[in-house]
Predict the structure of AzlD domain-containing protein.
Amino acid sequence: MITYESFDAWWWPYLFILIAGWIATDIWRWLGVLIGNRLKQESAALVWVRAVATALVAAVIAKLILYPTGELKNVSVALRLFAVAIGFSAFLIGGKRIWIGIVVAVGVLIGGQLLSG
């Protein structure tokens, strides 16, 4: 099984974030489309599911930013917050495509790390 501590390479935490970011969102979205296509968009059940899913993703992102583990501990809080802001902006500008936001944010993190040191 591959874990966060599986590899001792500088690039591994960034790849791990990309993979985890994709798995945590896209797989569940596709399953939701397949299973929930019979529900009305504004049904109480679907509104609740969306709220819980959004809260969980937001909590994971906040934990990674404010209380990082592993290699992310070596990245300044300012750089982590800047990467999130730029990634979110890219997500909005890119037509609300999650992968665009994730790739841009990870790119900012890597670029910031390379520039700082």
Summary: The two ends are 32 Å apart (CA to CA). The mean pLDDT is 88. The chain has one domain: 12-116.
